[in-house]
Structures are given as C-alpha cells and as structure tokens.
Amino acid sequence: MSCREGQGAIPILNRFHNLAIAHRTCSINAYNWLSTIHRPFKPTVPVLFSISKILVSASLVVGCAVFVLFAGCKEEPQIVTHRIPKSQSGLEDLRNEAADPDNKSEAAPAKFPTPDGWTRGKSNPMFPTEKFLKDFDGNEVVLSIMSLPASNDWESNVQRWLGQVGMEKSLAEIKSMTTQVPVDGKSSSKVRLLADDSDSQAIVGIMALKRNTAWFIKLMGEKAAVESAESEFDAYVDSIKLP
C-alpha cells in the first residue's frame, strides 16, 4: 500500500474507533443506570463476555489497520542498474581464451597402444572408437576398436559388416564361418569376410565380451591389403588387454 492510499483509509479508521468508544460508553451508562434501581442489576456472564469480545475485536481491527497504514508508508526500494564497460566485463577474455587453439582441452587418454608401424587415426567423437592406419601395397587398411553395450549380439553385427563389403549370408552361414580366438584370456568370436572379387572390400572382425561391454575389433580395407595385414592384426589382438 502506498502512503497516499494509506491516508485515504484514515477516515475509515476514525469511524471504527468512534464506534468502539460509543459502544463502550453506552454499556457503562446502562450499567450505572441499572445500579440505581432498588434491586441491583448484575450483568450476566454472557453479556459481559459479549461486551469484552466486541471491544477486543474492535481494538484488533484498529491496530491492524494502523499497522498496515504505517507499513505501507515505507519508502519503496529503488531498482538500480549499473552498466559495466565491455572492456571490464571479462567476456572478451573468455572468448579469446576459448578461441585459442593452445587452450583446448586434451583428448582422453587412449585405451589401447598403437601397433608397431601403424599410425593412430582420428576418432569419431560420436562413438568410443580407436583407429589405426597402415598402407599395404599402396592400399590403406584400417584397424578399429569400438566398445558397445554387451547386449549387442554377434550375428547382427556380422550382418552389418556383410553389408559394408557387399556380401549376403544367412544366420546358419554366419555361424559356420565363426571361429573362436582368445582375447585377453577370454574366448571371442571371429569372422573373415573376404569376397571372391580381389578388388572388393574385406573385413576381419572379432567380438570380445568383458563385464558389460562388447569390444568389436575390426580390420577393413581392400581384399589383398587385408590379407597382407591379417597376421599383424592377429598379433596385435593377442597382445591387447581389455579395460
């Protein structure tokens, strides 16, 4: 409530105050007049209680109204705004620091070592994959390691690999093509997908399970290059330890 609104309520407060005083005066006069009669009059408890209750209620109303009046007369707080110069805001320093290539955070440490004679390639940030590259007879071969939840089954991933090299196999054929090899002391599934066409793409893939993770280790490239790199691939798989 503003001070102007509180001043407008003063006549109403005065009316409540005068009403309470008049009621009290009438009660006292009535009591004194009855006392002069031969048979003294004593107000009953309910009457006295009603008079007291009215007086107390009126006093509370007046008190609350006065409190609201003076509380509303306090000066309202003013909103103060400050303009910070651009040079002092610190935003330019943050932008420059973020744009500086020397301030970029380092990549997470690799889980697997780089095979001898291979080069570590760039990983896809969308997938937890490590890649290693090497040329065999002028053709690049990619060795990749990717982790997925253990719920990924072997047959579905082999079907996906078959599509990458343009081959089709039934589930029964996939099972017959699958062999078991040790990876970090655990029996793991391996498949060799090499088409008859020498210019086609080929894949040698392994799935190793550890706890709740399925590790897919894959060698991919042109058929002749994959055949040349397969011995190094097998030696590397024998040496790695799964996290």
Secondary structure layout:
Blueprint: H1 3-8, H2 10-35, H3 45-71, H4 91-99, E1 119-120, E2 129-136, E3 139-149, H5 154-164, H6 171-177, E4 179-183, E5 186-193, E6 201-210, E7 213-222, H7 223-239
Antiparallel strand pairs: 1-2, 2-3, 3-7, 4-5, 5-6, 6-7
Written account of the structure:
The protein is α+β, with helices and mostly antiparallel strands and 243 residues long. The protein folds into two domains: 3-71; 119-239, Protein Transport Mog1p, Chain A, CATH 3.40.1000. It is built from seven helices and seven strands. Strands 1-2-3-7-6-5-4 form a seven-stranded antiparallel sheet. A hairpin with a 2-residue loop joins β4 (179-183) and β5. The chain is elongated and about 120 Å long. The chain starts with a helix and ends with a helix. Residues 43-49 and 86-108 have low confidence and may be disordered.
Average of the residue pLDDT scores: 75
CATH class descriptor of the largest domain: Alpha Beta
Q: Outline the biggest β-sheet.
A: 7 strands, antiparallel
Major sheet: order of its strands?
1-2-3-7-6-5-4
CATH architecture of the largest domain: 3-Layer(aba) Sandwich
How would you sum up the global shape?
elongated
- Give the DSSP E fraction (strand runs of 2 or more residues): 15-25%
Run of helices and strands: HHHHEEEHHEEEEH
Number of distinct beta strands = 7
Category by helix and strand content? alpha+beta
**How widely separated are the two ends?**
69 Å
How many helical stretches?
Answer: 7
Write down the domain tally: 2
Kindly report the CATH topology of the largest domain: Protein Transport Mog1p, Chain A
Query: What is the subunit organization of this protein?
Result: single chain
Helix content: 40-55%
Low-confidence stretches: 43-49, 86-108
Supply Rg.
46 Å
CATH superfamily of the largest domain: Mog1/PsbP, alpha/beta/alpha sandwich
Region (Disordered): 90-123
Biased composition (Basic and acidic residues): 92-105
Transmembrane segments: 54-73
Keywords: Membrane, Transmembrane, Transmembrane helix
